[in-house]
Amino acid sequence: MALHLSVPVSRNSGESLTSQIQRFIKQEIQRGTLHPGTRLPPSRWLAADLKVSRSVVVEAYAQLTAEGYLEAARGAGTRVRGHLSREAVVPVLLDEGPVPPMRWDLRPGSHNATGLPRREWLTAYQRALSTPHPRGTTYPYLAGEPELRGELARHLGRLRGVSATPTGVLVVSGFAQALALLCAALPSTGITELAVEDPCHPGQRRFVRDSGLRVVPVPVDDEGIDVDALAATSARAVLVTPAHQFPTGAVLSAARREALVRWARAVDGWIVEDDYDGGLWYDDRVPRPLALQRLDPERVVYAGTASKLLDPGLRLGWLTAPEDLLHRLLHVRAGHDLGTESFTQLALAELLRSGLFDRYLRRLNERCAGRRRALDQAVRTHLPGATVSGPAAGLHATVRLPVHTEEAALIAGALRRGVLVRGGAAFGAVPRRGSPALVVGHAHLPRSGIDEAFREIGAAVSPPGPGSGCR
Questions:
Q1: Which of 99, 135, 188, 256 fits 342 for a cystine, CB–CB 3.0-4.6 Å?
Q2: For position 330, what pLDDT does the model report?
Q3: How does pLDDT run across 410-433, given as a tens digit for each residue?
Q4: Which of the listed CATH numbers 3.40.640.10, 3.30.470.20, 3.40.50.300, 3.40.50.10380 matches domain 118-355?
């Protein structure tokens, strides 16, 4: 909060001082300079700054409050009233527009399962600030705080099988920045195309294209990306989600993993591994896959993020890369910012070092497992003929609908019944007939909410004909 408000007052004017102050504040609110929720200086501060009697300011504030421009609350001071409409904030990688209020929001990425573990985070933050020589008095290290780079190297090696030293880790402000740096650095290696999975997140496709690289869609099946189809393109770099493909949930098979690494070596190219929900695996039937990067650390750039496991608001991510490419990424970054905020990095390092993160991740897996079971049951009950594909992992799942289902009509019907859900067609670069699906973010919902949402989706389905499921 500013210590003063620049209110022009004139004692030679025929207008009273109270009226001048009142008129100016009202104009600034109407102009949009003073935003809803802005806290104004206490009356005694403003009076002292303007060299007027405090009663003059008190009267102006009172009149503006009576007219609905300001609001006063005990202990919270005087603020601009929140009467203006707020525009939706649209993250570039989510590709979501403003939507009407819905009872159930099943979009993937719109929520996390639990949000930030506040107690553990506060503990880690306090410990980070209580060290004998706390960071923050200088600019951050461009590659990231050494404490966090070391903890990430140990954590990723233990949990995901990533082969990296602390000096090979780069801390970034979320995966969005990691992808932006890569898109800016790859042309210096002679690469102007980036292959992406099809389907994938439409926001990522657009992000890559807007960064100046040509996007090359490559089909995905139940074994992950089709490496033969990739090899038939001219691309020398590819962005993949091998542990839990987004959105299908497919796991890249062992044979495809080996083939993908062979492809990268043959074309002298790069594999960008987006491990967006790394470690969130709760399927007892299928072993948790380790990072693709371990097969060839010189060809695979591994990228992870705190957005899914902790909270998108942290804007923390990381990547590992060979020395030459890492230097290129740092050179690009030096032209854009001065590094990621230090205190948050140190808090995350403490969260990892202390074991608080491991305990939190265990609880998160247990909670997500229960909600995935609720999803499986809800689909069986309310959408006969539909199946939930892929292993139980992450925060979302794909529900494959019977072949003759009209996906768009089902989504529109669900919307009318208060359920916001996205269809599989929204994620594909190339429309595919005969593969209707719903991509469901389920981990943030209570179990009863999952059942209720799918009851409404089921009610939106036209009565099935003989021998068929959804229509």
A1: 135
A2: 96
A3: 999 999 889 999 999 889 987 666
A4: 3.40.640.10
